[in-house]
Amino acid sequence: MTALVLWDIDRTLLYVGDIDRLVYQEAFRDVVGREATKLPARGTGVTMPLAVRELLTANDVPETEVERFADLIVDRLPDRLDTHREDLVRHGTVMPGAVEALAAVHQAPDLTPSVVTGNLRASAEIKLAALSLIQYVDIPLGGYASDSAHRPDLVGIAQSRTAARHGIQFNAATTVIIGDSRQDVVTGLEGGAKVIEVASGTTSAQQLFEAGAHCVLSDLRDPEGLLSRIRALTSE
Fold this sequence. Notes:
Helices cover 48% and strands 11% of the residues. By secondary structure, the protein is an alpha/beta fold. It folds into 2 domains: 3-15 and 93-233, 3-Layer(aba) Sandwich (Rossmann fold); 19-89. A 5-stranded parallel β-sheet has the order 4-1-5-6-7, sandwiched between helices. A two-stranded antiparallel sheet has the order 2-3. Strand 6 (194-198), helix 9 and strand 7 form a beta-alpha-beta unit. Helix 1 (19-32) crosses helix 3 and helix 2 (48-58) packs across helix 3.
């Protein structure tokens, strides 16, 4: 049985500190013409377009202008992030065990690794490339916030892209999301995937279990154990 493995990025594979929030501030200033005093919450897992709308509303942008400004800000985010590529390399952190876990999944002949993330595709590529992780996932097969602001939609998008490439239909029994937040759990349960969570973000292991995760790990330091859990979930 071949399984599709969809990795979340932020706080699951890597952590970029306040760089994302700085990028939001810069793009907000570019478009709105003033500083944003209230920034998106950390580690929520919401898609970038939704985070931008929350940013605009929290900073008292008139409701009639939110959608127009949101589109303009979202368009600017990848280019703004790219200007911080050296900061990503210098200050970004690869999560413990992430390289070994990514490599193990990538090398497994019965697993197809890609991405489901709240990042726009271009932003995801910039982060993964800056921290030398991009070679472990098949970027074109993934689901991104640039495809849909509603995160559960991204599972079906990734499944369809993978089916078109490989001629294999994936469903909730043969797809696994690996993430760190409640949003990752919701994405899997509503979108059609099993969910392995890593308690490496802002959400505790107990909270992740209560949200409905099928499995919760403390970190990614046991790649063989991760492979066993993926195969157990997709062989049920």
